[in-house]
Every structure is written in structure tokens, then in C-alpha cells.
Amino acid sequence: MRGDEASDLISDRVAQTIVDRIMRGELKAGEPIRQDALAAELGVSRIPVRDALRALEMRGLVALRANAGARVVSRTAADMDMSYRLREILEPMLLAESVPNLTDAQIEHIAAAKAQMDALEETEDYLPRSREFHVSLFSGHRSPLLAYIVNWLWDTTHSYRVAYARMSMADSERMAAMRADREQMMHAIRARDVDLACRYLAIHIVRTRHALHRYAAARPDGEASGADDEARSPDWAESDAHA
């Protein structure tokens, strides 16, 4: 293995360590990331740590400031609103690219992921199951640039989804509405009805945005923050974005 390849692997490992800690809530929104301490803990030099932080800055997970070091990104309710409005537009576009190319096997995988979402009982299961369902929806896309942009939006909204997961699992009416959204999407996808599938996905995202607005309004600082395990890049974006 060449030296540059080994260096890339080390920086990737450091980046994933940081992401994992954000996902688990060990690194919270606005918290500083001590580069020297992290390098010493992981037994690496500061170079791969800096490279990892730059990569995570590009993903919208970390903020780097001259003379101030690195911090976990902290976003406001206004940031959340804009991110979700963009998702309302772009994710249906990506779904429209995906649906015509889905194989029967991929559609059955979507159905299986949906069934797992419908059967959820524990909050900690919500986020990985939600990820799997959405990854499967986009698995037929042929638009790496659009997938890259959607992936970036997922990363920049990762902190809001943990709040939504907690709200949803505690609200049977909201859970029922979300199951209905997924059921309608599933019917549309099986029928290869692109317009209808995209419409239901947009409704699903709008519903989430409105619920998060209510959550943010109830917070004294007006900030939607947290961490979840959707910070890891989805396979549907990761596989093509670097092609």
C-alpha cells in the first residue's frame, strides 16, 4: 500500500471515530474537538486528524475556524427550515430518478425496510431503520451529483432527526400518519407511479418540517440540536458521489 493510501485510510478512520461520537451524543452540538487529545488517543499524528476534520467540514458536521479550532456544528431553527425546504424539492427529484430503474428485488427490499419501520417499538431503532428505508428508496438513481447534494443535506440535518425520532415514538398519532405516508409511497412505487411516489415523499418531509418547527418553538434558545446515527453517509450517495 502506498503512503498516500495509508494516510487516507487513517484519516478516514479518524473521521468515522468523530462521526460515531457525534452519533452517540458523546460530542454535542457546539462542543470543541480537541485535535491534540484526539490524535494522542488514537495514536496518530495531527495530520490525519486535520484531514478528517476538513472532510467533516465539507459534510457539514464540523465547523473549522482560524485560531478557534474545530467544533461540532450547531444549527438554528432557521437553518433547519431551509435545509428541509431544500429536501422537499431535491429528494422527490432523486426518487423520480430512482423509481424507473428499481428492480423487483430492490422494490421488495423497500417493502422489507418499510415493514421494519412499521414494527418499531424502541426509539433507538428508529434512526437506523429510517435510514435503511430512505437508502432503499433511492437505490435506483442514476444521478450521482443530485445524490451527493441530498447526502450533504442529510448530514447537515442529522441533529434534527434525533429530535423528531423522540417526538414521533412518543406520539401514536404521528406514528400512524408516518406509517400512512410510507404505505402510500409503497403502493405508488409498486405501481411505478413516479409522480405519486414523489408527492407522498414531499408530504412526508413537509410533515417532519412542521413537527420540528413546533419542537424548535418550544426550546428557549430556538436551536434544534442533537446527534443521530444518520450522520454516516448513505450508501446510495457514497457509492456514486466519488465515481
> In the CATH hierarchy, what is the superfamily of the largest domain?
GntR ligand-binding domain-like
Number of helices: 11
Largest sheet data: 3 strands, antiparallel
Average pLDDT = 83
Q: Based on DSSP secondary structure assignment, what is the total number of beta strands?
A: 3
By CATH reckoning, the class of the largest domain would read Mainly Alpha
What structural class is derived from the secondary structure elements?
A: mainly alpha
Query: Can you tell me the number of structural domains?
Result: 2
Silhouette: globular
CATH architecture of the largest domain: Up-down Bundle
Give the fraction of residues assigned to helices: 55-70%
Taking the alpha carbons of the first and last residues, their distance comes to 21 Å
CATH fold group of the largest domain: Four Helix Bundle (Hemerythrin (Met), subunit A)
Written overview of the protein:
This protein has 243 residues and is mainly alpha-helical. The chain folds into 2 domains: 3-72, Winged helix-like DNA-binding domain superfamily/Winged helix DNA-binding domain (Arc Repressor Mutant, subunit A); 77-241, GntR ligand-binding domain-like (Four Helix Bundle (Hemerythrin (Met), subunit A), Up-down Bundle). The protein is 70% helix and 4% strand. The protein has helices at 3-23, 35-42, 46-58, 77-98, 104-118, 123-137, 144-156, 158-169, 172-190, 194-217, 235-241; strands spanning 32-33, 62-65, 69-72. A 3-stranded antiparallel β-sheet has the order 1-3-2. The longest helix is centred in the last third of the chain and has 24 residues, at 194-217. The two termini are 21 Å apart. The model is unreliable at 222-243 (pLDDT under 50).
